[in-house]
Amino acid sequence: MPEGHTIHRLAGALDAGFGGQRVRVSSPQGRFEEAAQLERWVLARTEAAGKHLLITFTPDAQSDPEGPAARIVHVHLGLYGSWTFAGDPGFALAGAIGAPRLRVGEREEALAGSTRAVESSAGADGSADEDGAEPGWRAILPRPTTRLRLQGVSGLADLTGPTACELYDSSQRDALLQRLGPDPLRADADPQRFVDRVLGSRTTIGALLMNQEVIAGVGNIYRAEVLFRARLDPFVPGRELSAGIVRGIWDDLVPLLRYGARTGRIVTTQPEHRDIEARIVERSRGTLQNGEEHPDAVARERSFYVYHRQTLPCRICGTEIRSRDLAARTVFWCPRCQSVRSRRSPWTAQHPAGPWADPAGQAGDPGGRSDTGDAGPASAAAPAQIA
DNA sequence: ACCGTATGTGAAC
DNA sequence: TTCACCTACGGTG
């Protein structure tokens, strides 16, 4: 159940695992029959735009990914879609924190601990090339529901349950990018487009944040959480907000989403607002790198201020968190902290360098890519500064 | 076995 | 505003 951070993370994982490679492309389930057209094409690059994933294939390594021969697979995970990775140790998520994982998108579990990964009896299934090299991994059997399988020399990725998995041409890609609002995780994002849309709308800020034409990539968790961090009532119409408040929401989302893309999990609570135990790393499932925070360091139940915390006391004031339908989804908020009366400048305005800053060398725009690439565990090192 | 739920979207009413 | 859709999993019977 992904928001935009997951899709950027996936884009990085697919590029790391298959980028530049000739790959096997199939639809074990049969519901994406166009997969056959791409069999043994080259996965040129993967791009995330909001919650949309665009995987560009070319017939050979020399072809221009922007050229007319390129084909694009458009994937939207919807509520249920997920990718499952299997392959060499660290495959696709090499450089990620902790152990290699399965099931990016909906849930992640340790590769070694998976009991669902049925190994094929023929180890040669893992071979994607014809050079006779023995793969160091074994292909798992696809579930019957696997819509799309990508298989390279060092691993595979299975897609199940997507809302969309279809072939796009470049004009369809352009139309999609045109339709979407700015994505805080993309280098080409224009925050002013978001600010202008919000300030010009009578719709509530809580609904606007869920509208992908207003801002791309925010989902139900980030909506609730960023509004709490701004101490903003979800039901305030956009036009009643100041430009500074709206820009502050954007500026807060950037490091929050980057953190999510980098670690694979959403954490929005300030350390001082978590319970004391939360600062203790209960257990370690891998070697920490460069003193980086282990993703398990913040237990899920301490990661949010309001999401799914209805009836629980607010972490700040103790008032009972409320929930209510807004824009077809349930919004969660603290009626006291997020009342109009207590509205103030967002948290980032006071603390420009929060704990969500990327550790040095961990993330940044590797250049040449249209997305920020911070999802990419294997993305090039470049210091990413928070404005 | 069945039910409810889930970080989503878009078409139909 | 309601509904259908794509899937997996935990709880309940």
From TrEMBL:
Q: In the UniProt record, does the keyword Ribonucleoprotein occur?
A: no
The FPG-type domain covers: 305-339
Q: Which reaction does it catalyse?
A: 2'-deoxyribonucleotide-(2'-deoxyribose 5'-phosphate)-2'-deoxyribonucleotide-DNA = a 3'-end 2'-deoxyribonucleotide-(2,3-dehydro-2,3-deoxyribose 5'-phosphate)-DNA + a 5'-end 5'-phospho-2'-deoxyribonucleoside-DNA + H(+)
Q: Kindly state which keywords UniProt assigns to this record, in alphabetical order.
A: DNA damage, DNA repair, DNA-binding, Glycosidase, Hydrolase, Lyase, Metal-binding, Multifunctional enzyme, Zinc, Zinc-finger
The record's InterPro entries line, in alphabetical order, gives: DNA_glyclase_Znf_dom_DNA_BS, FPG_cat, FPG_N, H2TH_FPG, Ribosomal_uS13-like_H2TH, Znf_DNA_glyclase/AP_lyase, Znf_FPG/IleRS
E.C. numbers: 4.2.99.18
This protein's superkingdom? Answer: Bacteria
Q: What is this protein called?
A: DNA-(apurinic or apyrimidinic site) lyase
Ranges where the record places region Disordered? 113-139, 344-387
Q: Which Pfam families match?
A: H2TH, zf-FPG_IleRS
Q: Which cofactor does it need?
A: Zn(2+)
Similarity remark = Belongs to the FPG family.
Enzyme group, top EC level?
lyase
Comp. bias (Low complexity): 352-363, 373-387
